[in-house]
Amino acid sequence: MSSPWTILLGLFLISSQVLADLYGDAQTLEKCLRELSSPENIAGDLQKLERYASWTHEELPCLLRCLAREKGWFDPEANKWRLQRLTDELGADMYNYCRFELRRTTTDGCSFAYRGLRCLKQAEMYAGTTLSTLLQCSRQMNATNVQLMQYSRLMAKEHIPCLFQCFADAMGFYDSAGNWRLVNWQQAFGPAENEEPSVAANYSSCRLSEKERQEAGNKCSWMYQEYLCWERINGNYLTKEKS
């Protein structure tokens, strides 16, 4: 006769869609649950797992570190992400989206893994949209691949005039009054380098005054200037142009 553990777990694995969110197959999830839960607690733990999409903190401590370890993405002994393996398996776009999150310094490996996997899930949702929107805008402007490649370096003058405006409008970076929709910026570019509230508040200084926007000459120009400010706060600085 099957144990209560096996029955509960079997019913959950059949009915739940959370596995895709957890980057794990049924066997991996079962292995981690057996490692971290117990027959006495499994029913309650499965109920917590069903709420995974709405977690604001890891309700099953260290579960995601176990899953990331089993995938070979996280080294619990060194308390580090295996960045090259992540890039090889998930792609450079996914890694770049989460690069700040995956490189943070922390002594809490469980929290580190939780935040990293949550970021990778967010990247799965948004990184593709960011890239496809950028490519769509470049096609509208008949930009060449060579011109797009120039965006690998941050320059004071936009390589493709008005490309960022097209992108920002499509991604909803601004409301009708011209104010930043910060959440949309974060969804497009991923977590910031420093997530301290004081740093997040600095983004307000990126919004040029109405006078400064008018003096910039046109919407494309002031939007690009504000984008450069975003990059500067995240530790990315202008590349000096060759004289």
Describe what you observe in this structure.
The structure is a single chain. The protein has 243 residues and is mainly alpha-helical. It has two domains: 9-126, Recoverin, domain 1, CATH 1.10.238; 141-233, Recoverin, domain 1, CATH 1.10.238. It has helices at 4-15, 18-21, 26-36, 42-50, 63-71, 83-90, 92-97, 99-102, 109-140, 145-149, 163-171, 182-189, 197-202, 210-215, 219-233; strands at 74-75, 80-81. A two-stranded antiparallel ribbon has the order 1-2. The longest helix is centred in the middle third of the chain and has 32 residues, at 109-140. The N and C termini lie far apart (79 Å). 23% of the residues are buried. Keywords: Disulfide bond, Secreted, Signal. It is found in: Secreted.
